[in-house]
Amino acid sequence: MARRGKKKNGLRWSKIYSFACIRPNEVLEDEQASSLGGPGYSRIVHCNQSHLHRQKPLKYPSNYISTTKYNVITFLPKAIFEQFRRVANLYFLLAAGLSLTPISPFSPFSMIAPLAFVVGLSMIKEAVEDWRRFMQDVEVNGRNVSVHKGEGQFEYKQWQKICVGDVVKVEKDQFFPADLLLLSSSFEDGICYVETMNLDGETNLKVKRSLEVTQALEDDASFKDFTATIRCEDPNPNLYTFVGNFEYERQVYALEPNHILLRDSKLRNTTYVYGVIIFTGHDSKVMQNATKSPAKRSRIEKKMDKVIYVLFTILVLISVISSIGFAVITKTKMPNWWYLQPKNDAGLYDPSKPVASGLAHLVTALILYGYLIPISLYVSIEVVKVSQALFINRDVLMYDEETEKPAHARTSNLNEELGQVDTILSDKTGTLTCNQMDFLKCSIAGVPYGVRSSEVEIATEKQMASEASVSEIESAHGTTDIVDRPQKPAIKGFSFEDDRLLHGNWVREPTAGIIRLFFRTLALCHTAIPEPNEETGGFTYEAESPDEGAFLVAAREFGFEFCRRQQSSVFIKEKYSPSGDPVEREFKLLSLLEFNSKRKRMSVIVRDEESGKILLLCKGADSIIFERLSKDGRMYLNETKQHLNEYGESGLRTLALAYKVLDESEYSAWDTEFQRAKTNIGPDREALVEHISDNMEKELILVGATAVEDKLQKGVPQCIDKLAQAGLKIWVLTGDKIETAINIGYACSLLRQGMTQIRLSIENDDLLAQDVNKAAKENILMKLTNASQMIKLEKDPHAAFALIIDGKTLTYALEDDIKNHFLSIAVECASVICCRVSPRQKAMVTRLVKEGTGKVTLAIGDGANDVGMIQEADIGIGISGVEGMQAVMASDFSISQFRFLERLLVVHGHWCYKRIALMICYFFYKNIAFGLTIFYFEAFTGFSGQSVYDDWYMLLFNVVLTSLPVISLGVFEQDVSSEVCLQFPALYQQGAKNLFFDWYRIIGWMFNGLYTSIVIFFLSIGIFYNRIFRAGGQTADMAAVGTTIFTCIIWAVNLQIALIMSHFTWIQHFFVWGSIVSWYLFLVAYGSSSPTLSGNSYKILGEALGPAPIYWLSTLVVAAACNIPYLVHISYQRVSHPLDHHVLQEIKYYRKDVEDENMWKREKVRARQRTKIGLTARVEAKFRQFAGRLSKKEKVPSSPSLSSSTNIQNPQ
């Protein structure tokens, strides 16, 4: 078959790259090849022979993945286990079993039916939520990929149907369906570009390469007779290592991580690749990093179990008291009660066997007093939580119009947990940022260019404007130099505005020659490929990183358009040439020293074909470039440093640009040495290449610096500011390099000037080589000790610390003997940034914070690399962004933009917490109030086992007569409106401090229930005892007394819930007063039914209670007596010790926020949590700086610094 078209202009990148494409000595000797096959290295893959892996001993798992909690087989046992982990359900299961005995006071149906209903409803809810996860799994498993079916023919198969050993063809912008060995690509030398953002959060494209021996497999037909064997490591979670051999045509070749394409990474800038599958499904490295979907329970639900233990203890206690009382009465008084015929009752009332009678009565009492344990509590909570989840799902203010995605509560079990979060652990790329770089500013020859403000500057200025009048700011600072001026629509990747450089005006600048060199460096120092754009007539660029793409767009807009690349040449169209006419200029590409995280710089060596000059053009981190400058190349150093500090404070990513001119002889000598190092086959080859490159990149001349804005998602700085004001701590966990993370920290206002940075990193590799663990631990412990001492000695109340740690150091910091020390330092810092961390490390950090602090953690991310921490955290939030759905599938809640987290927590979290807390406390109150009246009547009637209430009353009490008001409380209650929640985020701390569900409040509500039960029973008995009840002179019988007491209970508990509610709609009014009305309607309907059904309650309201004034009077008196103490208590609290929401309710009720706006603003400022991060903290720091200038005081000395070994920095 003919070759499939031209391959990327015939570029052989292995001839251009100096590091990523170094090819080792791939052919192994026999003794080297035989090292595999031991423990941990036993996997054998027969390439293009997948059928061999479907049988033992090579029966590997399929590529099907599942993120669900249950499957068809495990659903019933697991779901039932989950339901009976709840203490109340376990008790009612026992009670249902006892109801089958003859001594039960109720029928078995009346006990089993409610339990089956409650458990069944909860299981249905679990099944629905897990079904949604299953459907998302189906979407992923159902994706298609081209697979070799034999005879050189490929066909599309679903991901779930491919197997180990299959040869697959993945095309541009597709995800890899499994872990593959790269065989060949559309580039002639087997190079391909891979985006691993879903794995490690990095946006830079990675260069992968195939073995040289498989590059000839360049089209479909090549695989007709292809066979090979791979022997490699077993499945493991390490993303950055791979050990294996490739046996092909009787030769054995070494495999490296650069040969492996991991599942959930994406093919970029490459037309297609061929690969053979090594690991499938849950064996793949990304799935190895994932953890099983945990069964999460909220802290309130766990505490509720403890409260039920208390209620169960009370139940057992009063049952024992009742049992003892019954045994004593049976022995002492039963012989005198001959009319009860105790001898004919099978020994239950036998005076000669009081112990047996007491034990039998104990069972009766345990069932009878079961109303102390609210069986409908769980089902009511389920209904409330599902309703709350619907409100979250349908909140239009959390709907993203661009992606057309709403917020989604994937589970409703954790709604109230949203209101108790203490620490947020966030991913960076795709979560805080939108992976778009815009060229915004630059410094050339010591002159700053670019007048457009960054998002951070604009947000800060707006915040300052809200804090003080413009005149105050101007008087403090002279004039504001940051203006939120109307801005014209920017070209993607280019937001620069400055007429001094645009439209060719730069040629009139005094330093035009240096500016020209600056633009040429942008256009030449890269590895991008230009692709013609038929729509615009220009070019789009396939670059390794968004930064690189932004530089090329900027160069084009300045008149230096990169238009063509050949194997050894780069072509630029220069619009503003010295001759005045546009020209296409060729630069011979002699060498390329590419960027990596260790070098932190990139260089190209080119020859200008017009002038014949050889130039080294270099761009990199400013600290790296500055130390390589020659004495004569530092002319603009001080000015450039000042500009870089300003750019950093504005949240911009910066790079420094430099150059040097090479003599022909100098370059020739260096190139000879460089080529010799590249072809060296010894173990020190890479170090040798790095050393020779380092020698060339010295004695540079500084040209300038770039400032690129890593575009944050809309509203991120403002959201972080509000969350900080709400008292939340924010950690950033990213796979990106440390410089990038720090820039984003500034952009998000997690970092600011004046904040002391504690950087933990292992720097001395030579020392580590001697004794890795010992040296590293000693190094880290020393730094932690020094940092702890510095924090303790700090006296400035405004001082702030930021902890920055890399993944290598974190490996040791998370070990058992160090992790607690590390955590104690971290929680003292205002912000924490962890860089270069693996997915497993993200999960381990989350677990450390969760278990070490004992407080609620929330993890938020958007990629597969975030799944571990999302599942490990108490609450997992997935960002439903553009790339993949792995994070969403593993999450508890999903949102489309980070900014929606503010409303999810500060509004919905606050509401849900208070609603559930009040609802549960009220449930315990009303059931204690109701259940204890049964006990009092038992004691009043000789512990006879007789209930004062009709069976139907007791069945309807929780199910109908008091259920809807409490559900309306849980669904609709609002202490303050959503607008006030957002204006006063400090209200959120009521949930974080658990003010409404601590033991003090729970016990208070229990005593309220106890008081209510005493008042209702004894006041009702006192009113009716020995008193004429009807006009005929009759006294009240048990049915009349029981109905009256029950009426008082209905009124008391419904009036109580009306007093609790702060926010009334017609629904609450309907449910509360409707419940009372429904009681009277039931009495009428029940009393009108046949006497065989209604029994002693026949016509009880119409003929007995209704005409009796004492019935209505007692209802009024008892209901008032029950609720007046609570009314007095809440009135006293509002007057003497009001809570925050009480004050706000008063202000809103009397419209003080409208009448006195200054007072309202003043209250907002006073109500803030003291925070050292966010826009507010940045503005307050600026005001302190302005105040210092006005008072002309000496500048406050910086915080005491440690020795250089601690690497603690205080940028000013």
TrEMBL record:
GO terms for cellular component: plasma membrane. Residues 1189-1212 are annotated as: Disordered. Residues 45-112 form the P-type ATPase N-terminal domain. The keyword Transport does not apply. It is found in: Membrane. It comes from the Eukaryota. ATP binds at residues 427-429, 548, 595, 619, 653, 734-736, 836, 842, 865-866. InterPro entries: ATPase_P-typ_cyto_dom_N, ATPase_P-typ_P_site, ATPase_P-typ_TM_dom_sf, ATPase_P-typ_transduc_dom_A_sf, HAD-like_sf, HAD_sf, P-type_ATPase_IV, P-type_ATPase_N. It catalyses: ATP + H2O + phospholipidSide 1 = ADP + phosphate + phospholipidSide 2. Gene3D superfamilies: Calcium-transporting ATPase, cytoplasmic domain N, Calcium-transporting ATPase, cytoplasmic transduction domain A, HAD superfamily/HAD-like. The keyword Magnesium applies. Residues 888-1138 form the P-type ATPase C-terminal domain. CDD domains: P-type_ATPase_APLT_Dnf-like. Mg(2+) binds at residues 427, 429, 862, 866. Its EC number is 7.6.2.1. GO terms for molecular function: ATP binding; ATP hydrolysis activity; ATPase-coupled intramembrane lipid transporter activity; magnesium ion binding. Pfam families: Cation_ATPase, PhoLip_ATPase_C, PhoLip_ATPase_N. It is an enzyme of class 7 (translocase). Belongs to the cation transport ATPase (P-type) (TC 3.A.3) family. Type IV subfamily. NCBIfam families: ATPase-Plipid, ATPase_P-type. PANTHER family: PHOSPHOLIPID-TRANSPORTING ATPASE, PROBABLE PHOSPHOLIPID-TRANSPORTING ATPASE. This is Phospholipid-transporting ATPase.
